[in-house]
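Work Package 4 report. The design task specified in the project plan requires that, given a folded chain encoded as C-alpha cells, an amino acid be chosen for each position. We show below one input record used in the internal validation round.
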C-alpha cells in the first residue's frame, strides 16, 4: 500500500499537527464508545488459554530464568529472524543494556530521532551519555539517514533507529552510514514487532534490537517486560551476563551488571499471546487499510504513508491534520477514542 503525501503537510515543523488515532471498531465497548485500546475485549477471547499458562508456571514454582523465558527467547528470536533473544524486565532496560553491550559509556554521544517515546533518549542519558537528535523524515516519522551526516561527531558511539508506530525506519541508509564508520546500530523495535522492511523483519536489520512487551504493545504482557534480539553470539553472551548481576557463574560477577530478568509468568503469558499475534496483525492491517481508504478521500487528512516493500504493523494508526484539537472534539463527541 503506498499513499502519496499531501504536500501541505510535508514539513517537520508541521508535526505539531500530528494526531494519533487507533480507534478499532471491532472492540467497541458497551455499544457506545470506541476506545483507543480495549484489552478487556482481547482478554475475553484468550482468558482460558492464559489461565492454563499461568497455572503451569504456578505448578512449576520456577519464577525466574526458567523454561518459559527460554522458550519465549527462542520464539521471539525466530519471529525476528535472528539467532538470539535475551529476555529482560522492560523495553527501557533492553535499550540501556543494549547500549552498554555496544560499549556506550558516560561522555559518549548516541544519535537518535527526536520524535519517539522518551525512553529512547532516557536510556542513553541513564548511562551518562548524550542523546543527539538527528531529524526524522516527515512522511514516515522515522530517522532520516540524510540527517546523520549533519549530527555525527568524533564522540558518536552508536545510532538508535526507532521503528515508530509499527513502521520500519529506512534501515539501508542508516546501516550503510553506520558500517562505513564502524558504529553499531541499535533498533528500537518497541512498537514494531512483526513489521518488515524489504523482506526482512525489524529486529534483524541492525546489530542489536530492543523490544517492549508493555501491556499496550501489539504483543503485550500483563506487566512490564522486554527483550533484546541479536545475530551476534558474542553480544548475546554479554547481555545474559549484564541482565543477571554481571554473573558469569553463580555468585561470580565479572563486571557490574543489573537485575533485569523477565519473570516466568510474563513469559508464559506472552507465549500464549504470541500464537495470536499473526491474526491480530492481519486484523490491524485490515482496519488500517479501511481507514486509509476512507481518509484518503477527505482533504486535509494525511493517513500513514507506507513505502513500497515495507510492512507496517500499525501499533498506532497515526494521521496528520491541520486542526487536531477540533478533530479531537468531534471524535470525543462521537464516542471515538483518540490520543495525541
Ligand atoms: C519507541 C519506544 N521505545 C522504548 C519504549 C520503552 O519500553 P518499556 O515501556 O517497556 O520500558 C517504548 C514503550 O513504552 C517505546 O514505545
Amino acid at each position: 500500500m503506498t499513499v502519496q503525501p499531501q504536500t501541505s503537510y510535508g514539513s517537520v515543523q508541521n508535526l505539531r499537527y500530528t494526531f494519533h488515532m487507533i480507534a478499532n471498531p471491532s472492540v467497541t465497548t458497551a455499544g457506545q464508545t470506541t476506545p483507543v485500546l480495549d484489552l478487556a475485549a482481547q482478554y475475553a477471547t484468550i482468558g482460558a488459554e492464559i489461565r492454563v499458562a499461568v497455572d503451569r508456571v504456578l505448578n512449576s514454582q520456577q519464577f525466574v530464568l526458567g523454561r518459559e523465558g527460554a522458550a519465549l527467547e527462542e520464539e521471539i528470536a525466530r519471529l525476528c529472524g535472528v539467532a538470539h533473544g535475551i529476555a529482560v524486565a522492560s523495553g527501557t532496560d533492553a535499550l540501556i543494556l543494549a547500549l552498554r553491550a555496544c560499549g556506550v559509556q558516560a561522555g559518549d554521544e548516541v544519535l537518535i530521532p527526536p520524535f519517539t517515546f522518551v525512553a529512547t533518549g532516557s536510556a542513553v542519558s541513564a548511562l551518562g551519555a548524550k542523546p543527539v537528535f538527528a531529524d526524522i523524515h516527515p512522511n514516515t516519522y522515522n530517522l532520516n539517514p540524510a540527517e546523520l551526516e549533519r549530527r555525527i561527531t568524533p564522540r558518536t558511539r552508536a545510532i538508535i533507529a526507532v521503528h515508530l508506530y509499527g513502521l520500519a525506519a529506512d534501515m539501508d541508509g542508516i546501516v550503510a552510514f553506520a558500517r562505513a564508520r564502524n558504529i553499531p546500530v541499535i533498533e528500537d523495535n518497541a512498537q514494531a514487532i512483526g513489521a518488515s522492511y524489504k523482506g526482512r523483519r525489524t529486529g534483524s536489520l541492525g546489530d542489536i534490537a530492543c523490544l517492549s512487551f508493555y501491556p499496550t504493545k501489539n504483543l503485550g504482557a500483563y506487566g512490564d517486560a522486554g527483550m533484546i534480539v541479536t545475530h551476534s553470539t558474542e553480544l548475546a553472551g554479554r547481555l545474559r551476563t549484564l541482565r543477571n548481576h554481571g554473573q558469569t557463574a553463580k555468585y561470580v560477577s565479572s563486571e557490574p551488571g543489573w537485575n533485569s530478568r523477565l519473570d516466568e509468568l510474563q513469559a508464559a503469558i506472552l507465549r500464549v499471546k504470541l500464537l495470536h499475534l499473526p491474526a491480530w496483525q492481519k486484523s490491524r492491517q485490515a482496519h488500517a487499510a479501511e481507514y486509509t481508504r476512507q481518509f484518503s478521500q477527505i482533504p486535509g487528512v494525511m493517513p500513514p504513508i507506507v513505502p513500497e516493500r515495507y510492512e507496517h504493523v500499525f501499533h498506532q494508526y497515526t494521521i496528520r491534520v491541520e486542526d487536531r484539537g477540533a478533530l479531537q472534539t468531534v471524535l470525543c463527541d462521537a464516542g471515538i477514542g483518540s490520543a495525541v
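The radius of gyration is 20 Å. Validation will be extended to a larger panel in the next phase.
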